[in-house]
């Protein structure tokens, strides 16, 4: 079945992609400043690591509650409130004069981030027509990717001027994104008036119960694939890969940056086609392809160390991630096309769980065994997504 063209995607998709770009850009700007600012309080390395992980931890534990808020208050309200919460806590964190205050503000920011992420994805999947959910998810992810590429470069420069400056800029960017969302995203009454014309599910339709979603092989496959994305893309790739390049390959940190850039560039290019592939070729073959390429790409790192193999692995996994970041989200929309806050929240929690646990497990395996063992386990996690994809019905 042929879906709509990209130009016919609902307006909300473009708005959410712009908001995602601003959020990712700001996060990339502030990321280099967090450990430096935390260490300025005279705390040790463990405390600095806690300041980095507190945001992700509280984002994970509060996501389910954010999903419930989406079902009660609606996506637009929760999205704007989440962005405002992260903006306020980030700005105050830049003014913090003690480490405990800075730590708790970072943790509160994680709660706001969970609210925004769950609400944005729930809205995206609800307004996108069934034949365009893959393209909608790819467009949304594209905003994150472009912002994530541009942000760290600017953040490193700003941090050299002042470690507090990135926090204020990020807060301002989030307030601007929240204002854009409130102005350009349609109100519930407008959505109800346009539902029939857009082909989206009726707003009055209730959310799919989480227990019912968990009985769906499509939803389980989406969870397993998203766990792998969090484990490798948001976890191991950022924590273990730079150390692997400097310690195992004997290269400079610039080579690690080149590998990460190759992966991001390949993912950005892949997103131009991955969404359309998911909508026209089908969810199952697209997910099987993405999981297969991702598994092979990660397995390359299990081989004896080689700079060329490393760059090939990063580019290959980036290409796979373009499918693994859009197809599972489309599957979630297929399972729960209405206002499925908790269904979307658990889906997001799968990626966050991988991002938190993946670096810990991979780091421990590297210490007690080797980098190759750590990458082998990461390959198995991605491979589990392939097994789940193969178990999907062919229709």
From TrEMBL:
Pfam families: MFS_1. Keywords: Membrane, Transmembrane, Transmembrane helix, Transport. Signal peptide: none annotated. Residues 12-395 form the Major facilitator superfamily (MFS) profile domain. GO terms for molecular function: transmembrane transporter activity. The keyword Manganese does not apply. It is found in: Cell membrane. It is a multi-pass membrane protein. One of its GO terms (cellular component) is plasma membrane. The keyword Transmembrane helix applies. The chain crosses the membrane at residues 12-31, 37-58, 78-97, 103-125, 137-161, 167-185, 218-234, 254-272, 284-303, 309-331, 343-365, 371-392. InterPro entries: MFS, MFS_dom, MFS_trans_sf, MFS_Vesicular_Transporter, Tet-R_TetA/multi-R_MdtG-like. This is Predicted arabinose efflux permease, MFS family. The lineage of its organism: Bacteria, Bacillati, Actinomycetota, Actinomycetes, Geodermatophilales.
